[in-house]
């Protein structure tokens, strides 16, 4: 029994250090919390912003894909992590409205990944638009979820 006791104590110290690091990391994220992320994307000849706002209760996230007044935007789908999805297209020759989804959030400090797409200049009815997976952080930073590359953000 005396032989295993130091091993248990070592595991306890290691676990305590790991817990302390996680607490420090969470504290850093809490102090950096901005409640908004706005990465800029350029997909299929269309410039668009993904605008994400965490609710004041921090229980859901509203995500929009804004192409502004780009005439090349023909279809704008957006998919959330739990099956939320929507899509907009131009109506009567106007620009498409910005699609918007609401995503429930259990941990307000956790990052949320959404799939955004733009059917732009080369898109035609029946084609799959160009998708981009975006990881949104409540600290105001966004990443390409596939490559891990930080995306430029608009203030």
How are the SSEs placed, and which strands pair?
Blueprint: H1 4-31, E1 36-37, E2 40-43, E3 46-54, E4 60-66, E5 76-79, E6 85-88, E7 100-104, E8 112-118, E9 130-136, E10 142-144
Antiparallel strand pairs: 1-3, 2-3, 3-4, 4-7, 5-6, 5-8, 8-9, 9-10
What does this structure look like?
With 155 residues, this protein is an alpha+beta fold. The protein has 2 domains: 31 residues; 109 residues, Sandwich (Immunoglobulin-like). It is 18% helix and 34% strand. The protein has 1 helix and 10 strands. Strands 1, 2, 3, 4 and 7 form a 5-stranded antiparallel sheet that branches. It has a 5-stranded antiparallel sheet with strand order 6-5-8-9-10, with no helix packed on it. The protein is globular, with a radius of gyration of 21 Å. The termini are far apart. About 6% of the residues have low confidence.
The second-level CATH architecture of the largest domain is Sandwich
Largest pleated sheet: 5 strands, antiparallel
- Helix/strand class: alpha+beta
Question: Which word captures the global form?
Answer: globular
Give the CA-CA distance, first to last residue: 60 Å
What's the CATH topology name of the largest domain?
Immunoglobulin-like
Alpha carbon gyration radius: 21 Å
Number of helical regions: 1
Low-confidence sequence ranges: 9-18
Residues in β-strands, percent: 25-35%
- The beta-strand count equals 10
The domain tally reads 2
Helix content percent band: 10-25%
Report the top-level CATH class of the largest domain: Mainly Beta
């Amino acid at each position: 029994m005396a032989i295993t006791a130091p091993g248990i104590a070592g595991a306890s110290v290691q676990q305590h250090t790991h817990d302390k690091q996680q607490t420090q990391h969470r504290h850093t994220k809490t102090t950096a919390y901005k409640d908004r992320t706005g990465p800029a994307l350029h997909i299929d000849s269309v410039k668009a912003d993904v605008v994400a706002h965490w609710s004041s209760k921090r229980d859901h996230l509203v995500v929009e894909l804004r192409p502004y007044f780009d005439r090349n935007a023909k279809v704008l789908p957006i998919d959330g992590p739990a099956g939320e999805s929507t899509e907009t297209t131009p109506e009567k020759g106007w620009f498409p409205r910005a699609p918007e989804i609401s995503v429930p959030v259990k941990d307000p400090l956790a990052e949320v990944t959404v799939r955004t797409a733009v059917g732009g200049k080369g898109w035609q009815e029946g084609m799959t638009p160009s998708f981009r997976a975006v990881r949104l952080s409540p600290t105001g930073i966004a990443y390409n979820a596939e490559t891990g590359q930080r995306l430029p953000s608009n203030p």
